[in-house]
């Protein structure tokens, strides 16, 4: 089997060590010749790369390893870019969450005003990475999970229509693991699903085992009673705030008991509840900085200090194995069935053809083939039309540098109660994002 060269863009990410360990655990499925880390923040990347270099030396010394901030070095002679950058880093995530909350509006990384602010930062950065890849390795594929994925995906569709990009999210995967555990299956891989929606905005309509037996009724029943809370605490996202999110899925599902929902819909359907249960002084960004970020950087620091990873508490990010599945699908034409964020183009029959939707696709060497999900009901269609317009308006606001369109986008969001509040939030976000957003007029 050919050995592949991979660039991890956002080398300094908290997820990088878990992904490297996961890649090392899957070398027989996806052989690797070299791994390169690329980040804009040299110091941040140094800690993660220093530890990963030691891990690689101990576990797979044949794999060549490079860390760099130079695009040419990073993007030359590669097969895949795995992109998980955070434009503006945690300092700006904190602003995305706290500014809307100050105005009594949900403050969330990818939903509502926070997601729009993050989108206005991410679009230019992700497009730049795509351009580096196309310049230095035109045959490579770009696997993007940088957020806000819905807005980034729309930007790549509109502004880089020919580029070889796959946009993917791990939330459905995480939820499917919980579903599997809820009904006593070993793994989500025992299930085949039908699903439609936008990123962080969708519904499962069918879940079967490999023999074709319908599993949805049992899963629906579990969600109606417990949301996605299961007894298995070992599954990812174990923090208290995630547990609350999984529990709240019960109330989200009540709106359409024939389906089971993506957890992120709670921000759109219960925004008042979310605000009432938020602390404007301490949001998820603070939790992550105190939790995952300090753990990962602490462990990496210890590995560097000890010169070995033998006793490290860093663990394989098992659930990130979908990234290997995706790369394998492209490399070996496996036709794996996966949920991807793709141009609708008829997959949802009664929905805008140019919308970026999340649906099951068969992935092979030529990219994804979306599977038709048919017509969707009026309730979901109404919600999705409003949300997709918001996402398209943000991309238009970015490319046209239009204040007006961004104000329209904020006003159109279900999460924002009025045009006045939209404008007040926009003013604050614009100030906080100076230097990150294009100058709007
Ligand atoms: P992080 O801040 O720890 O890491 C991001 C890294 O990106 C930082 O080291 C930063 O310096 C770097 N960076 C920022 N802008 C860059 C640029 N233009 N070029 C190169 N590097 C750049 O963040 P994290 O919590 O590890 O998350 C990383 C990203 O992955 C975020 O976008 C997050 O939302 C996303 N994510 C997505 C999914 C999904 O379902 N799609 C799942 C998990 C995480
Ligand atoms: C899920 C979503 C991602 C999001 C992440 C946030 O995995 O699919 O898009 O980035 O949650 O997790 P965090 O722990 O950073 O709040
Ligand atoms: Mn996601």
UniProtKB/TrEMBL annotation:
<keyword id="KW-0326">Glycosidase</keyword>
<dbReference type="Pfam" id="PF02056">
    <property type="entry name" value="Glyco_hydro_4"/>
</dbReference>
<dbReference type="InterPro" id="IPR015955">
    <property type="entry name" value="Lactate_DH/Glyco_Ohase_4_C"/>
</dbReference>
<feature type="active site" description="Proton acceptor">
    <location>
        <position position="264"/>
    </location>
</feature>
<dbReference type="InterPro" id="IPR036291">
    <property type="entry name" value="NAD(P)-bd_dom_sf"/>
</dbReference>
<feature type="active site" description="Proton donor">
    <location>
        <position position="170"/>
    </location>
</feature>
<dbReference type="InterPro" id="IPR022616">
    <property type="entry name" value="Glyco_hydro_4_C"/>
</dbReference>
<dbReference type="GO" id="GO:0016616">
    <property type="term" value="F:oxidoreductase activity, acting on the CH-OH group of donors, NAD or NADP as acceptor"/>
</dbReference>
<dbReference type="InterPro" id="IPR019802">
    <property type="entry name" value="GlycHydrolase_4_CS"/>
</dbReference>
<dbReference type="GO" id="GO:0005975">
    <property type="term" value="P:carbohydrate metabolic process"/>
</dbReference>
<keyword id="KW-0533">Nickel</keyword>
<dbReference type="Pfam" id="PF11975">
    <property type="entry name" value="Glyco_hydro_4C"/>
</dbReference>
<dbReference type="InterPro" id="IPR001088">
    <property type="entry name" value="Glyco_hydro_4"/>
</dbReference>
<feature type="binding site">
    <location>
        <position position="284"/>
    </location>
    <ligand>
        <name>substrate</name>
    </ligand>
</feature>
<feature type="binding site">
    <location>
        <position position="147"/>
    </location>
    <ligand>
        <name>substrate</name>
    </ligand>
</feature>
<keyword id="KW-0170">Cobalt</keyword>
<feature type="binding site">
    <location>
        <position position="200"/>
    </location>
    <ligand>
        <name>Mn(2+)</name>
    </ligand>
</feature>
<dbReference type="GO" id="GO:0046872">
    <property type="term" value="F:metal ion binding"/>
</dbReference>
<keyword id="KW-0464">Manganese</keyword>
<feature type="domain" description="Glycosyl hydrolase family 4 C-terminal">
    <location>
        <begin position="195"/>
        <end position="416"/>
    </location>
</feature>
<feature type="binding site">
    <location>
        <position position="169"/>
    </location>
    <ligand>
        <name>Mn(2+)</name>
    </ligand>
</feature>
<feature type="binding site">
    <location>
        <position position="93"/>
    </location>
    <ligand>
        <name>substrate</name>
    </ligand>
</feature>
<keyword id="KW-0408">Iron</keyword>
<dbReference type="GO" id="GO:0004553">
    <property type="term" value="F:hydrolase activity, hydrolyzing O-glycosyl compounds"/>
</dbReference>
<keyword id="KW-0520">NAD</keyword>
<comment type="similarity">
    <text>Belongs to the glycosyl hydrolase 4 family.</text>
</comment>
<feature type="site" description="Increases basicity of active site Tyr">
    <location>
        <position position="109"/>
    </location>
</feature>
<keyword id="KW-0479">Metal-binding</keyword>
<keyword id="KW-0378">Hydrolase</keyword>
<protein>
    <submittedName>
        <fullName>Maltose-6'-phosphate glucosidase</fullName>
    </submittedName>
</protein>
């Amino acid at each position: 089997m050919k050995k592949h060269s991979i660039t991890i863009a956002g080398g300094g990410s908290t997820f990088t060590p878990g992904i490297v360990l996961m890649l090392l655990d899957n070398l027989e499925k996806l052989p690797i010749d070299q791994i390169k880390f690329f980040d804009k923040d040299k110091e941040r990347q140094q800690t993660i790369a220093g530890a990963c270099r030691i891990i690689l030396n101990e576990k797979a010394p044949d794999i060549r390893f490079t860390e760099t901030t130079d695009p040419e070095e990073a993007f030359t002679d590669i097969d895949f870019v795995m992109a998980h950058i955070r434009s503006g880093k945690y300092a700006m995530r904190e602003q995305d969450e706290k500014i809307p909350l100050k105005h009594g509006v949900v403050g969330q990384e990818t939903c509502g005003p926070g997601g729009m602010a993050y989108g206005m930062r991410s679009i230019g950065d992700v497009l730049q990475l795509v351009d580096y890849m196309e310049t230095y390795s035109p045959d490579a594929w770009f696997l993007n999970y940088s957020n806000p994925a819905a807005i980034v995906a729309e930007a790549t569709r509109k502004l880089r229509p020919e580029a070889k990009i796959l946009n993917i999210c791990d939330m459905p995967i995480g939820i499917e693991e919980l579903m599997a555990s809820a009904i006593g299956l070993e793994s989500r891989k025992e299930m085949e699903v039908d699903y439609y929606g936008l990123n962080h905005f969708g519904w499962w309509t069918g879940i079967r085992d490999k023999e074709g037996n319908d599993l949805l009724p049992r899963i629906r029943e579990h969600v109606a009673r417990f949301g996605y809370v299961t007894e298995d605490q070992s599954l990812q996202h174990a923090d208290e705030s995630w547990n609350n999110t999984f529990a709240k899925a019960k109330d989200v599902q009540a709106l359409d008991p024939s389906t089971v929902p993506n957890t992120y819909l709670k921000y759109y359907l219960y925004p008042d509840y979310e605000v009432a249960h938020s602390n404007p002084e301490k949001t998820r960004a603070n939790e992550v900085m105190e939790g995952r970020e300090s753990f990962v950087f602490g462990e990496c620091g210890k590995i560097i200090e000890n010169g070995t990873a033998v006793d490290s508490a860093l663990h394989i990010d098992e659930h990130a194995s979908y990234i290997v599945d995706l790369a394998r699908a492209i490399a070996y034409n496996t036709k794996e069935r996966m949920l991807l964020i793709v141009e609708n183009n008829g997959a949802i029959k009664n929905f805008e053809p140019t919308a970026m939707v999340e649906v099951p696709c068969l992935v092979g060497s030529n990219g994804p083939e979306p599977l038709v999900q048919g017509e969707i009901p009026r309730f979901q269609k109404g919600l999705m039309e409003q949300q997709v317009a918001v996402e398209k308006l943000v991309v238009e606001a970015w490319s046209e540098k239009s204040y007006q369109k961004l104000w329209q986008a904020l006003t159109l969001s279900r999460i924002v109660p009025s045009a006045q509040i939209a404008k007040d939030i926009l003013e604050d976000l614009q100030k906080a994002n100076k230097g990150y957003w294009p100058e709007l007029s």
